[in-house]
Specification:
Radius of gyration: 24 Å
Number of helices: 18
Number of strands: 5
Helix content: over 70%
Strand content: 5-15%
Structural class: mainly alpha
Distance between the termini: 29 Å
Length: 419
């Protein structure tokens, strides 16, 4: 990874992309220091620390929620909108056709996603402001309107930053924003653990357990993310005009986890969404009972979390890798899997391998995401509860960014060869 970054830095165009990405991320962190007015931050911070669900939201937003900055909602409305649009794409034929239209269709879906995200941002911002009325220093209607407008504008700005990073920078902009948000809370987390050890509130063995779990998780995530099953493919010889083509052997790479960290983010959002809404309205008994039933330490909540991770992994794998299209392309160009007939048998063969790989990758992701919660229940602390999820996101985004750099370098070499 370090070697890839060094080689990318030596190339002027990629160096410009890297600097542009860093600049936008620095702007994001500077914006995190702009606090929304009329909020009693001390009381709000104490309430968030006492609520584990809001604590996770605070981690994902990089302490923006606890400080109630202009980016208090983070990028969550856009993530929720993406979930809704992806699910609707499976149910609505018009959206499904747009998905298959290439770049033009994806641009239209991205536009619709922004509209849905804007509506969700307004609803969530209004809910946060009304739910946190006890933390307002001035109880007036115009204060509610002002705070709602400010944090909606902050989320819209983050969406724009993510688009700019994706188009003109390196990697997926939304993932990079979540990545830098989690990383920004790392120094404070280390300081809290260190102070806890000094005062005796944390046993020293917890630190050893966290370090071992982190090391094993990183190794496992890298192995699963980079793990690839190579399907042998042969091309028959064919004569076109006076030239002969084909007659070579190659392979078709199939990754163990083709969906990255998206399933973790989506599953986490769906499981904790009711609890987050309940936290915004602490006096509502119905929402409070739903929140109590969906506590992450409850067995059925953990089962739901695992099922959603597996389901989203399969869903995104089907979106990114279609065995029918792959088999059709192989047959069109005279390729075949040795020992497997072209056409439907090839589709069945690729589907079987894909399902096995995806199941293995999804179960590993679910295991890494759920083990810290089990460990926190055994040890009796909540500090480990979301360690695995955060680690998965950080390592996954780092690997995806390095892959994006390598793809840019490969494309640059192709352009130089064509010139």
């Amino acid at each position: 990874m370090v070697d890839t970054i060094k080689r990318a830095w030596n190339l002027p165009d990629l160096r410009s992309r890297l600097l542009y990405t860093f600049m936008l991320l620095i702007i994001y962190r500077f914006g995190s220091a702009i606090v929304v007015p009329y909020i009693n931050l001390d009381v709000l911070a104490a309430y968030i620390e006492a609520n584990s669900v809001l604590g996770l939201l605070n981690v994902i937003t990089g302490n923006n929620f606890k400080n109630f900055s202009v980016f208090a909602m983070g990028i969550q409305p856009y993530i929720n909108a993406s979930i809704i649009m992806n699910l609707l794409s499976m149910a609505i034929p018009a959206l499904e056709r747009l998905n298959k239209e290439g770049d033009a269709g994806q641009k239209k879906i991205a536009k619709y996603t922004k509209y849905v995200a804007a509506v969700l941002a307004i609803i969530q911002a209004l809910g946060m402001t009304l739910g946190f009325d006890s933390f307002l220093t001035v109880d007036r209607w115009y204060v509610v309107v002002l705070i709602t407008t400010i944090i909606c504008a902050g989320t819209s700005f983050l969406m724009w930053l993510g688009e700019q990073i994706t188009d003109k920078g390196i990697g997926n902009g939304i993932s990079m924003i979540i990545f830098i948000s989690i990383i920004s809370g790392l120094p404070a987390g280390i300081a809290n653990i260190y102070n806890g050890i000094l005062v005796g509130s944390y046993p020293f063995y917890i630190v050893i357990v966290m370090l071992l779990f982190g090391l094993i998780s990183i190794i496992g995530v890298v192995a699963v993310q980079e793990g690839t099953r190579k399907i042998p493919v042969s091309y028959a010889k064919r004569v076109v005009g006076r030239k002969m083509y084909g007659g070579r052997n190659t392979h078709l790479p199939m990754k163990v986890n083709q969906s990255g960290v998206i399933p973790i983010i989506f599953a986490q959002t769906l499981v904790l969404f009711p609890s987050q809404i309940a936290a915004f309205f602490p006096n509502n008994r119905v929402l409070a009972s739903i929140s109590d039933a969906l506590v992450m330490t409850k067995p059925w909540t953990m089962v739901m979390y695992v099922v959603l991770i597996v389901a989203f992994t399969f869903f995104y794998t089907m979106v990114t890798f279609n065995p029918e299209e792959v088999a059709e392309n192989l047959q069109q160009y005279g390729g075949f899997v040795p020992g497997i007939r072209s056409g439907k048998p090839t589709v069945t063969y690729l589907t079987r391998i894909l399902n096995r790989l995806t199941l293995s990758g999804s179960l590993f992701l679910a295991m890494i995401a759920i083990l810290p919660t089990i460990a926190s229940m055994i040890i009796g602390t909540e500090d480990l509860q979301f360690t695995g999820t955060s680690l998965l996101i950080v390592v996954g985004v780092a690997l995806e960014t390095v892959e994006a750099l390598e793809q840019h370098m490969i494309m640059r070499n192709y352009k130089g060869f064509l010139k």
